[in-house]
Write a structure and sequence with these properties.
By secondary structure, the chain is an alpha+beta fold. It has helices spanning 3-32, 39-56, 192-198; strands at 69-74, 79-80, 85-90, 95-104, 116-122, 125-129, 132-133, 144-150, 158-163, 169-170, 176-185. Helix 1 (3-32) packs antiparallel against helix 2 (39-56).
């Protein structure tokens, strides 16, 4: 066996030993250092330890959770004044990739241009996403179908529906939103809400 091959094997073994030591040390401190604290504080420390191990350990390759989940939000009976919004989805601390379908009142001037925006992101950093109009199954002026996808760029933990019209809008039956997530993962950088949770909020 050549000296180069021996050196490579030694380096690989050393990396594996360091990796095992990091995990063992993390588990030890997680279990030993939180016994006298509140359950909320304990859970926060466990989450932080898991995040540290998953996000920063040697030779870690991220594998997302690809379990599919679907959520229907009934909007009937809701009134949104101009610029008001409703939070439809929050998966903090996990970011999600998915699709949203919406049954909403139509814009009387142009049904293809909705009176609403779907804001996505990690609160408070939210941006509007493009919505497609499904004219084939819409029934203006009461029912307009829109859809959008989210999470295929920057991480998304929050989905908001906002009234961007200059009037109040009453939502009635069968107005609704259906959110389907296809994949979730833990972003490497904590969000504003994650940082607040670490401070005990």
């Amino acid at each position: 066996m050549t000296a180069i091959a021996q050196t490579s094997m030694i380096a690989a073994c050393l990396a594996i030993l360091i990796y095992i030591a990091v995990i063992t040390t993390g588990n030890y401190f997680t279990s030993e250092s939180i016994s006298d604290e509140s359950p909320l504080s304990q859970q926060s420390q466990i989450d932080n330890a898991i995040h540290e191990q998953i996000s920063t350990n040697l030779n870690y390759s991220h594998k997302a959770d690809t379990n599919r989940d679907s959520l229907t939000v009934l909007l009937n009976g809701l009134k949104l004044n101009a610029s008001e919004f409703i939070l439809l989805y929050d998966s903090t601390p996990y970011a999600s990739k998915g699709h949203i379908a919406l049954n909403l009142p139509c814009n009387n001037d142009n049904p293809a241009v909705p009176d609403f925006q779907v804001l996505i992101g990690r609160a408070p950093d939210m941006v509007p996403t493009a919505m497609g109009y499904l004219g084939q199954i819409s029934q203006p002026p009461q029912i307009c179908m829109y859809h959008a996808q989210f999470g295929f760029g920057d991480p998304v933990t929050d989905v908001i529906l906002k009234n961007v019209a200059d009037k109040s809008i009453n939502l009635t039956s069968p107005h609704s939103a259906v959110i389907t997530t296809h994949e979730s993962f833990l972003p490497t950088a904590p969000s504003f809400k994650d940082i607040q949770h670490q401070k005990g909020y």
